[in-house]
Protein: tRNA (Adenine22-N1)-methyltransferase
Organism: Bacillus chungangensis
Amino acid sequence: MNSEHLSKRLACVASFVPKGSVLADIGSDHAYLPCFLVKAGMIQAAIAGEVAKGPYTSAYNEVRRLQLEKHISVRMGDGLAVLEKDEGVSCITIAGMGGALITSILEKGEQKLANVTRLVLQPNVGAQHVRKWLIDHDWLIIGEAILEEDNCIYEIIGAEKDGKSEAELNEAELLMGPFLLKDKHPVFINKWTEECRHWQQILARLQEAKATPEIEMKKQTLLKKIQLVEEALL
């Protein structure tokens, strides 16, 4: 993978970025995504943010190698702290992190989202936390995708600021995704079949454990998830 040929995962993230955007790619790593989008003429400009020195240096070197310094600003900082006021950022991408970390980044930097119209989020795990945060903060989920690459399954969520959204997601939609539930792509079926099998194995072990309120709560949580998935896969 490089700036000319994105991975399947990043190519899918790129497909959710509106043409003409000013992009902030948080956790940009090598800055492959913003470099690709600028070179393709898909976005006006970009900010590549990284919290650690190593990835920041990798991103800086890639932007410099491609002579894209006039179009892409590489910055080191924590989450949305790399953004400054009135920079015109209209789209933010956060990919390759856990769902809890993505929601933490959005929560801490929420004041930086005032003029952002699109979020493109790719949680490695815990996508339900991302969906819940979006709905709780009046962001409308406008599309989702699921794909498999290198034996890993990824979900991508696109959202737009609604402001007055009264949209609610039920438990199954929060867990598995409203669009993904409707589409039931083969990768979706595989993912949740395996998840359900894993939960059933954990449940079987819990059934043999000494009964405590904590164990009982875990069992009930697993039973509920298994029920939701089994109903979705019918």
Residues 8-166 form a domain with the Rossmann fold fold (CATH 3.40.50.150). The mean pLDDT is 94. Residues 129 and 232 are 19 Å apart (CA to CA).
